[in-house]
Amino acid sequence: MTAPLHEARPSGSGRALPDTQQGMRRRNLARVMHAVSAEGSLSRAAVASRIGLTRAAVSTLVDELIRWGLLEELGPERPGRVGRPGSALAVSGRGPAGIGAEIGVDHLAVCAVDLRGTVRARAVRRGGNRDRAPEAVAAELGQLARRVVAEAQREELWPAGLAVAVPGLVARDGRTVVRAPNLDWHDTDIGALLPGEWPLTVDNEANYGALAELWLGEDTPHDFLHVSAEIGIGAAVVVDGGLLRGTRGFAGELGHIPVRPDGPPCPCGGRGCLEQYAGEEAVLRAAGLEPREDRVGLLAGRAEDGDERVRAALRDAGAALGIALTGAVNLLDPETVVLGGALASLSPWLLPSLEAELTGRTAGPACPVAVSRLGPEGPLLGAAHSVVRSVLDDPAVVTERS
Length: 402
Description:
Helices cover 41% and strands 21% of the residues. By secondary structure, it is an alpha/beta fold. The strands form 4 sheets. Strands 5-4-3-6-10 form a 5-stranded mixed beta sheet, with helices on both faces. A 5-stranded mixed beta sheet has the order 13-12-11-14-15, sandwiched between helices. Strand 7 (169-170) and strand 8 (176-180) form a beta hairpin. The chain is globular, with a radius of gyration of 22 Å. It starts with 20 loop residues before the first helix and ends with a helix. Residues 1-14 have low confidence and may be disordered. GO terms for molecular function: DNA-binding transcription factor activity.
């Protein structure tokens, strides 16, 4: 049977809870967790009002979640309320944590996020991964993950799972990198290379960046096209609050859309791809600059200082990006386009030409373009938060993992 094109619930464990009494109980536990998480703190009565269950039913669910260490009581609610004050509930800052990791072309990063969404531990290693074997990269990433987990455990947190963002195509099995051109990886089973002590999910970095924008962004709509860039350029499409993945899970490869079919060759095997005009290294070449560790900082600094060659390179990159986005906007009709990753930092010089191309070429009304406040942190945060969301979506899973 063909896999569904639209993943309606990107945040959960991916398994549907059965329509049984046990399944209903698990769904109600999730409703309680989401209600408290969304508000920061709520009484049992307020939770019951929001999710439409009796106070007695909610109290039973809350007691269970407190026993599992997922909720905690903060004490009596603030004075001034009519009637007997209830005890305010909050998501626990201890217990399960989401471990997010990112394999970049020139860095590795790992972080731990608690159920409140707070980053509690982080580790980063700068350095190129392009010419390294997957086994060596995974071994080093595993070391960083263990360091972060150890730091989190000192704060009474334990890993509920590990989610890894990669710059490439990921199979629907959630562990195999089918192709990552900028790493020169092919059919690499990340699950077999990383520590097996935690539940593992691997996904494209643009997908995790889009989910971070959906969950953490301010007033982000539920229909948008998210674009991010480093050396490569990735995109993710969010429709009705879920990722549009495509039949094989490869949707969103904006960087390999040809904007000039007779242009330079691309590592993907094509020619004139968007990455050859709007990726970080392409912009550096056009600006006549040598690559260094902080490529974005170099470009932004020179552009800020009025370097006309850098500004021209960024204008050209913005125009190429606008041409590529036009096809996606005309095809998908998103509510907005969100620029993340390096594009967010370079947006003052990219946006004018990008928006000019998008406005002039789009069949319908102009699609607004927003700049992500998460920037390059999006994929790492999205990965960690995907694990957190899996716990909120099915709190009973902690009893199976602990």
